[in-house]
Specification:
f41 fragment of flagellin, N-terminal domain; 2 domains; two-stranded antiparallel sheet; 6% strand
């Protein structure tokens, strides 16, 4: 095989360009801080990087969901705590009204305060979180109670609002009005007949508000013995409320644990992504120095290959 000067020059230029290309790759890795610039650089690492990016985005969404879930539960806990304070005050007043030694004027004052406390309970029952009623089940755009304490929404006992807080994990954030205020009972008139609305449907109210109405009626009539008998019903309502508060508190603790785990997973994913994509600066600098030496050597050898001419051979 005949080796010509042109062949030598072409091969020399090809090798020199390869050396320059390798050196440019290391310089690019150092300047950008990442070692993957296109799928052809390393298809396996590119696929892993895309999966990690997806996991990070998914986990960030879970973290936002956890924050929303915790805020909802925190608002619920605040409302339940306020409702508990109201019931405790109602009980104190009821004990005073049940002792049988108060005159009519004092009983009337207690009755007036209990009526105001009932109005406040209605406002608590219609509490909202960012414009959504927290005790109305799925119908968060509608209030749960009417102004008189009767139920505006019925049959919402099984309606659970859930947040996705993990790949296969959900948490329920709401408690319904029936859980908080007790089961529904018919509103009856003085004759004991069920009261109906304009559509002929029976009007309902929760057990807690039935107890409140019974207390107010007994105080209005000056019936201290009936007020005393109603203390047991009031205690049952308080006990139920404390149980619901306990469940909400347990959910808040669970959500906090999930949040800590989500934040830890984000750190782990970020660390793994860094190991997958980021340039190892020490290794890259060492490779660049080697490639630079190789390139300089190729330039030196190339100068010797290109240098000879016909005149050099005629001397």
């Amino acid at each position: 095989m005949r080796i010509t000067n042109g062949m030598m020059v072409s091969r020399m230029m090809l090798n020199m360009n390869n050396n320059l290309r390798n050196m440019d790759k290391e310089q690019n890795d150092l300047s950008t801080g990442v070692k993957i610039h296109r799928p052809s650089d390393d298809p396996v690492l590119v696929a892993r990087s895309l999966k990690i990016h997806t996991d990070i985005a998914e986990n960030e969404q879970f973290t936002r969901n956890v924050d929303d879930a915790y805020s909802w539960l925190d608002k619920t806990e605040t409302s339940l705590k306020e409702l508990n304070n109201v019931l405790q005050r109602v009980r104190e007043l009821s004990v005073q009204a049940a002792n049988g030694v108060l005159n009519a004027e004092d009983t009337q004052k207690i009755q007036s305060e209990v009526e105001q406390l009932k109005e406040h309970m209605v406002k608590i029952g219609n509490d909202t979180y960012i414009g959504r009623h927290i005790f109305s089940g799925f119908k968060t755009d509608e209030k749960y109670l009417n102004d008189d304490g009767t139920v505006s929404l019925k049959d919402i006992g099984g309606q659970k609002i859930e947040y996705q807080v993990g790949v296969s994990a959900k948490t329920t954030v709401n408690v319904t009005g029936e859980q908080v205020f007790g089961t529904l009972v018919d509103v009856v008139d003085e004759s004991g007949n069920a009261v109906v609305d304009g559509d002929g449907n029976p009007i309902k109210k929760n057990e807690m508000f039935k107890t409140m109405d019974d207390l107010i009626g007994a105080m209005k009539n000056g019936d201290s013995s009936k007020v005393s008998n109603l203390l047991g019903d009031l205690d049952k309502n308080i006990e139920n409320l404390l149980q619901v508060r306990g469940e909400v508190g347990a959910k808040m603790n669970t959500v906090e644990v999930i949040k800590d785990r989500a934040e830890e997973m984000t750190l782990n994913f970020t660390s793994l992504l860094s190991k997958t994509e980021d340039t190892d600066m020490g290794e890259a600098v060492m490779k660049l120095n080697i490639l630079e030496s190789v390139y300089k050597a190729s330039l030196s050898i190339g100068a010797r290959v290109i240098q000879p001419t016909l005149v050099d051979f005629l001397r």
